[in-house]
Amino acid sequence: MKILVLNAGSSSQKSCLYNLSDSSSLPDRPPHPLWEATIDWTVSPDYGVMVVKANGEKCETYLESDRKTEAIAKMLQTLVTGETQVIDQLGEIDIAGHRVVHGGVRYSQATLITPEVKAAIAELIPLAPSHNPAHLRGIEAVESLLPDCPQVAVFDTAFHSQMPEKAALYPIPYSWFEQGVRRYGFHGTSHHYCAVRAAELMGKPLEDLKLITCHLGNGASLAAIANGISIDTTMGFTPLEGLMMGTRSGSIDPAIVLYLMREYQLDVDEIDRLLNKESGLKGISGKSADLRAIFQGIEQGEARSQLAFDVYIHRLRRSLGSMLGSLGGLDTLVFTAGVGENSALVRQKACEGWEFLGLKLDDGKNEESPVDVDIATADSTVRIYVIHTEEDWAIARQCWHLLVMYYT
Question: What positions does the entry give for ATP binding (predicted)?
Answer without folding.
Answer: 14, 215-219, 290-292, 338-342
